[in-house]
Amino acid sequence: MTYLILSVLLWLYDNRSFDKISHDNIARIEGLRAYQSGNYKRAAEQYVALVNSALFVEPSARLNLAHSYFQLRQYAQAQKHYRLVAQVSQPDLAAAAEIQLGVIAVLQGDSTAALTLFRKALNTVPALEPAQFNYELIKKTYSGKPIQNSAQRPKPKPRQSQQETEMALERGKESGTEVEQGDTKNELLRRLRSLNLSEEQALSILNSMQANEVQYIHQRKQTAKKKDRLTFNTY
């Protein structure tokens, strides 16, 4: 009798396990299908069902879940799953997660964290093109050194004061930067779109970088004015 009861219980458990595996596989397949078709809301729902049900979720599925949250602009949820994927032993997936964490940091205005994450992705997968591009772009933009175009700098007039010379050079830098930015904005936008960014997110990053450069130029002018006042007050 006891043997019969145990047999029934094992049979029920096996069938329950089979149903659970089948359910997980359906969620996995439907999640991937929705993600590939751009239906990120449904993809997130299916992948969440998989995460909540399965004892183990393959990193690629969790990465797609994070990507889905990213596209839905639910950055806190995206970060949670990107951080988990960044810890796996598969370099390509870990580096992809680190890049996305860096992009979120840029969108949140944290350039220091972004640079650290892009560098970490390069350490995970050396010479990884998206990580290298992002690192160089953000480093150049947030280093306080606007792009210079020496051919368009105005030459200082004879007997110009140091202050006038600095201001003339600054105007030349601004002019050169505007021309070069006008030529490269579309290229930057194209490259940003290729990094799993929507047009709105790519434009947000570009606007953030431009605002940072404007702030830097303003700070340089304020510093120059202070130096000029100190010069006149020196005996």
Automatic annotation (TrEMBL):
Positions of the UniProt region annotated as Disordered: 145-185
Pfam family, one: TPR_12
SUPFAM superfamilies noted in UniProt: TPR-like
Record keywords: TPR repeat
Record carries keyword Ubl conjugation: no
Gene3D superfamilies xref list: Tetratricopeptide repeat domain
Biased composition (Basic and acidic residues): 168-185
Keyword Nucleus: no
UniProt repeat feature TPR, residue ranges: 95-128
Coiled-coil region(s): none
Protein name listed in UniProt: Tetratricopeptide repeat-containing protein
Species: Larkinella punicea
